Amino acid sequence: MGTLYLVRHGQASFGAADYDRLSELGHRQSRRLGQYFAEKGLRFDAVLSGTLRRHGETFQGMAEGMGHTAQAPPAPLLWPGLNEYDSAAVIATVHPRPLEKPDSPEMYRHHFRLLRDGLAQWMAGTVSPRGMPSYREFVAGITSALDHIRAQHHGQNVLIVSSGGPIATAVGQVLGTPPEVTIDLNLRIRNSAVTEFAFTPKRHMLLTYNTLPHLDAPDFSGWVTYA
């Protein structure tokens, strides 16, 4: 039996012109996660990563944290099916006017209410966000990565670096959750959080979801973020 570790990227630049890059805190979260894995003596036999900039920066931070030791991870296999959906395109299906940059708790809540509505309609097939695959195709990109891991890495430790949407979708597929539960999982996942699956050649089994063991000490209490 193998173990798959799914890591959400560190804090990105929500509300900035370019979301797809880690904030300074996001870099620190990533390095700290790598240090934690090194402290545990965990070695990854294979790594799969989405192709977004924030995925690459998260992996690099983890590799720096693990250091040039026997635990240093191998270069990732880039897997576009692990990329996040385009949240702006999803929101545009239910709110065609451009949103103002969120600068208050109410505006942040409004943003995520629209995102939840747009996700539900995309998953139901009632809207088609511009430039995005259908939800069925999105799921297929994620399950293809899971299929690859089961077929090629039985008995090994495997790392996936991705985003909240693909990780929540992977959990939803393993547990058979309805769309509204998958959305809830997606919107509650934290930056640099770790989700674990045990796997055999036939199936994946959920062990943990959305954990932050590397930030469990009081010194890191201000490092917990969601966007």
Summarize the SSE layout with pairings.
Layout: E1 2-8, H1 24-39, E2 46-49, H2 53-66, E3 77-78, H3 87-92, H4 105-124, H5 135-152, E4 157-162, H6 164-175, H7 179-188, E5 194-199, E6 204-211
Parallel strand pairs: 1-4, 2-3, 2-4
Antiparallel strand pairs: 1-5, 5-6
Structure description:
This protein is α/β, with parallel strands linked by helices and 227 residues long. Strands 3-2-4-1-5-6 form a six-stranded mixed β-sheet. The chain contains seven helices and six strands, in the order βαβαβαααβααββ. It has two domains: 2-84 and 133-223, 3-Layer(aba) Sandwich (Rossmann fold), CATH 3.40.50.1240; 86-131, no CATH class. α1 crosses α2 (53-66), α4 runs antiparallel to α7 and α5 (135-152) packs across α6.
